[in-house]
Amino acid sequence: MTNNTTxxxxxxxxxxxxxxxxxxxGSLDFGGAQLLANVCEQxxxxxxxxxxxxxxxxxxxxxxxxxxxxxxxxxxxxxxGESLFTRAxxxxxxxxxx
Length: 98
Hints:
Elements: E1 2-3, E2 7-11, E3 19-28, H1 30-44, E4 49-60, H2 62-72, E5 77-80, H3 84-95
Parallel strand pairs: 3-4, 4-5
Antiparallel strand pairs: 1-2, 2-3
């Protein structure tokens, strides 16, 4: 799935039926984060656990970090592969109470 070429969300094949991994690539702004949240919600209807692989994210803003924190607080979603920059923004969003 794409959103104006800024973000790409790819379901990875070969996963167990009880979990699904979504590879996120590109620049993640608020619109892209909302798209990711919608894709995650749809994936959660089909499986018990959704892993959101952020290893391909080159940029995110504070608003998208808040959306990612919201996803991470939900038990069926797990964030992985975040860079130091991404992790710092997620921690900042958490400290701000988003």
